[in-house]
Amino acid sequence: MAFEDEWQQSKAAAAARLGESMQLNGVPNYDPADPRRGGNSRTDMGAGPGTEDYVVFDDHLGRIGHDAFLLFNDMRAAGKHARKETEAAATSLKSDGFTMGGAIAEVNEVWERQVKTLMQACAHISNHLDYTLESNKAQDELIETDMKAIKASKINDYFT
């Protein structure tokens, strides 16, 4: 079979699969156990049946932020547990004339940079989610206050 023929067959098969599963401006039937249908197999974090909006609950954001904070703290200690021994081994090997000592030192430096990068990412996630929770709370309070200030429409006075 020629490449063009095989390519056309593959495109047609993909289009057929896409046509069967594509749904615009809506969601498939809600299934809390199926992530492809709005649910989550571990914990149902979906918005529920019949909703199309993305919904995130404060407790979910709080859990993710807390996990990022815990990971940050764990990484601070665990990421450096072999630093002194590695530096000592690299120095010893270098002084004995082994080129491997320099390579070990370089690997150790790269490792430290990677750990710092991951720690920064965890801190960023944790801080961002803390900000998001506070920001959403403030917005909800503002909306609630604004809604309380709205008076009932005068149009009802004309229908007596």
TrEMBL record:
<feature type="region of interest" description="Disordered">
    <location>
        <begin position="1"/>
        <end position="49"/>
    </location>
</feature>
<protein>
    <recommendedName>
        <fullName>AG1 protein</fullName>
    </recommendedName>
</protein>
